[in-house]
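Two proteins were folded this term; both appear here.
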Amino acid sequence: MKRASKFVIPPNWKVLFKDLGIELQHILGFAKLPQMLFEQNKVQLTPSQYFQLWHGIEAAAQVKGIDIALKFAQVMSFESFDAPIFAAICSANLNAAVKRLQEYKPLIGPMLLTIEQTEQYTRIDISCYGYEGLLPSMLNLMELVFFTQLTRLATRSNVQPVEIILPDLPNNLNAYQTYFGCSIRQGSKTSIAFRAEDARMPFLTDNQMMLSVFDDELKQRLETVTHRGTTSDSVSKILLDLLPQGESSIESVASHMAVSKRTLQRKLTNEGISYQTILQQVRLQLAEYYLNETELPLIEVSFLLGYQESNSFIRAYSTWTGVSPGKVRT
């Protein structure tokens, strides 16, 4: 999935804060961000600053005694939507909307969507990148409320999820279970699932003409924010050359880039990604190619990915994908 290193916060977030009943200056104070941040013509945040802002929103809401995710369900409206979410609203149904949001997520925030679509359900798993600390638990809830409320607004039906998973259960659990219409269980991820028939229910807001306008603009914006000759792109390209030579260390990559290890780590941190994450991505990309497009023995595939012995590759690949390399081959 594409990623961005900076995110533009739309001006209409100020409308959302007002509707939620929390003061912008209180949010920025708790977030330890500049008080004049939203006075700029263009508000841009790094992944770390993005989550700082959400920590500020959570803290400001707690001081006011506002259950912010439930409040969001009450005030969510088209006025607070940015272009990527308008594009989702103009889609044919929830399945089409979440795929569009998955593509355009780098324009919204440092969050990743993983979609599983079966004959029984559509499941959306939500994760993040570029931040080492604990995520605001309220942000996880807000994401799940957003997908539920988006579906209800677009279909004008009281669509209810069939399953919700959260790392931390909300204090007001009964109220949230009443809102969603299903039980909420604790787990290691943030996830929401809808019945297949509900995910296919036509959006009354479907507007393919408007969607074509949004898509053209959004694809241009996406290209701009995700292709800037970033340090992570350079690291990926160098690893493609080094891995078949048995080299995978950050020291080797830094040497090829003529920078120190410390400088390379700092640049990657500024882009919201770690060296190990890039290494894993490149290895997985190459592994998929070698396993599906060649007949190379696993021991040779392991060597081409920079592993000293095949068992290390087999364990790593099984962890990444949930299946063994041998099973992919068969």
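Next, the second protein.
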Amino acid sequence: MGCRGIRIPGRNNCLAHLAPAHRTAYLGTLSAGADIDHRSTPFTHRLLAELLNALRDQTTSLPIIDRARFDGARFDGEADFADATFNGPAEFDGALFTDYGRFKAAHFESTSSFAGVQFSEASFENAVFVSATRFMHAKFQYDSRFMRAQFSDLAIFVMARFGGVVSFEGSVFTEARFSGTRFENIADFSNATFSRTSNLGPFVCASLVYLEGAVFEAPVTLEIAASTVYCAGTRWEHRAELRLRYADLDLRYAVLSAPTAVTFHAVP
């Protein structure tokens, strides 16, 4: 009663509320490369592990999914998608991760969408995004790790929030970690908020980095190699240093509330 989870075909309940025998039967129908639809389903760490175990490739022992629909799902406990391959669209719009969302070294071969997702803590280290990906309106309460991730198409972080409300006394220090990240197309952080990020980068972008309207609420150093960095209307509420390589820089209407330096990054 009251569960919004999508029903399993042929059953009246979502995966979380199936009788054990019915759940076992359903998982037995899955194999590597299957489509799955578990929108609005509540997952525990154990239930997600059971689902992903049913999707593991017999040769590599790694999960392989075609289209994955987790829109509105709730993940209680660690949600471990590390090393998973998503061959079709991966849809997590509006999902809630109350603990650690692990997508380390995951491969997204098609489009992926995390719009409006709420993460307690997230790791996308070494993840590969072949097609466009969206993190617009996503919220990362604590650390968000994208170190050495590769984005081959559009990477959209419009209106994302990295870190909770700033409190320099008694607050957990949080970071948006993009060290070694590679963007081969546009990296769009327009109107994003960085609450406790002290270093953004170093990362490289073969195209444009948009920081228009973004807000940096703590002292920060940006290290970026890119074609162009757009900071029109960007607001820095504390000291900032922009260490850039190659890039044209647009600072029209930017708000600089403290001493700000723009320097040339002399080494790759």
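The radius of gyration is 20 Å. The chain is about 5% helix and 40% strand. These notes refer to the second protein only.
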